[in-house]
Design a protein that fits this description.
- The protein has a single domain, classed as Growth Hormone, Chain: A (Up-down Bundle), CATH 1.20.1250.20.
- Helix 3 (44-68) packs antiparallel against helix 14, helix 6 runs antiparallel to helix 7 and helix 11 packs across helix 13 (307-335).
- The longest helix has 32 residues, at 10-41.
- It is 82% helix and 0% strand.
- It contains 17 helices and no strands.
- By secondary structure, the chain is mostly helical.
- It has helices at residues 3-7, 10-41, 44-68, 74-97, 103-132, 137-165, 167-186, 203-216, 218-233, 241-247, 253-277, 283-302, 307-335, 341-352, 355-368, 371-388, 390-398.
């Protein structure tokens, strides 16, 4: 199925738009939270903890949300998630406008936004496959990743500009507008998943089935192992980019936003290339190489004391994260039977939910040493972890 055929699906277009707008708001918030928290506290640990709180709900309730979502219409889950984001953006804007915004407000907002992201993330990828079918899933996922990564590029840029011109209040106001449009778009979503997926089996029972499925499938085990490695030693590095930009490179909010946006640019370009060029035979190779490359590039970023090599490392890291993200969804979806995909994505959510451990680890290292040293050590640890776990993920690469 071509990209044009995928886009001809009305509900896919709405889901695609909602994902893009939500990603734009999320990345805008991520930069705004990091810049404001670092300016107020001067602590890389606090910045890392805000990112950790955004990821924490994935581990706490991601698997349960994924399996519970099989029992209700997923449109309801999406609407609730977007409503949470809209409510938090509105609250933060009002607090900022009144001069009462504190770091603890950002911490609460990060956790609540993490709840909404978990609810959306754990069901949206299943819906993509159901809307377009297994054959077209890599193209649909690439389109989704391309737009999400375009948002990942534009969100920090817009956040940096708004912070430098109209302040944090304007940045939160922009987020509120994005979530409002997203909510309106979701109201027109009509797809309903088959009744067979809404059986009366308990949520816990469905989650147990997901773990049983993972044990029976070497490819799914390998996919999950690589996911754990990336979320412990790869993804947390994103929290240090604004810190390195302000501390090590001496950049202001606008330049920091532009530097962070290079991650989204690299991811956008890679997402488009993966959709066009990567066949099923190479899915596992791209998946593993992306994670290994991310670790190496994290070391390169930590050693960069000039904006050009730092920008190149961030650009290539974005490309690696896009390869990882697209293949993670595709491999998980294809490794599970249709009736068990919700369960498989529930277990995947649990693995993603281990990321807070990585953020705490990185934050403690950064406070004990420096943000650059911590980033370098974490990147190196990720490469070593990937090498040591070859026996568990080789089935993903070898087929």
């Amino acid at each position: 199925m071509s990209f044009a055929a995928v886009l001809a699906n009305r509900d896919f277009r709405r889901l695609w738009l909602v994902g893009t707008l939500s990603s734009l708001g999320r990345w805008l918030d991520t930069l705004a939270f990091a810049v404001v928290a670092y300016q107020q506290s001067g602590s890389p640990f606090i910045v890392a903890m805000l990112s950790m709180l955004r990821m924490l709900p994935m581990g706490l309730c991601g698997p349960l949300l994924a399996t519970f979502a099989d029992r209700v219409q997923r449109r309801t889950v999406f609407l609730a998630a977007i409503g949470l984001n809209l409510g938090m953006a509105t609250g933060l804007m009002l607090l900022s406008a009144s001069g009462r915004l504190a770091i603890w407000h950002l911490a609460v907002a990060a956790f609540v936004n993490g709840m909404s992201w978990t609810a959306e993330n754990t069901v949206r990828r299943v819906n993509l496959g159901e809307l377009v079918g297994s054959e077209a899933l890599p193209r649909a996922t690439s389109l989704d990743a391309a737009s999400a990564n375009a948002a990942r590029m534009l969100g920090p840029t817009a956040g940096g500009v708004f912070l430098a011109t109209v302040g944090i209040t304007g940045a939160f106001g922009l987020g509120m507008a994005l979530y409002t449009v997203s909510l309106l778009a979701m109201l027109g979503y009509r797809y309903q998943h088959p009744r067979s997926l809404t059986a009366t089996q308990s949520t816990l029972g469905r989650l147990i089935e997901g773990f049983a499925l993972a044990r029976r499938s070497p490819r799914l085990v390998g996919t999950l192992v690589i996911t754990v490695i990336f979320n412990l030693w790869g993804w947390p590095v994103t929290a240090m980019v604004p810190v390195l930009a302000q501390g090590q490179l001496g950049l202001g909010p606008e330049a920091t936003g532009l530097l962070v946006s290079l991650d989204g640019l690299g991811a956008l370009l890679a997402a488009m290339l993966v959709g066009w060029l990567v066949t099923a035979r190479w899915h596992g190779v791209v998946y593993a190489v992306s994670v290994g490359s991310y670790g190496v590039l994290s070391v390169g970023l930590a050693l960069s004391h000039h904006v050009v090599p730092a920008g190149l490392a961030i650009l290539l890291s974005g490309a690696a994260s896009a390869g990882f993200g697209i293949m993670q969804t595709t491999l998980t979806y294809l490794a599970a039977p249709a009736e068990l995909r919700g369960r498989a994505f529930g277990v995947l959510a649990l693995c993603i939910g281990l990321a807070p451990i990585g953020f705490v680890h990185l934050g403690l290292l950064a406070d004990a040493t420096s943000s650059a040293t911590a980033t370098m050590l974490v990147g190196a640890e990720g490469v070593v972890a990937l090498a040591l776990t070859w026996r568990w993920w080789r089935a993903v690469v070898l087929g």
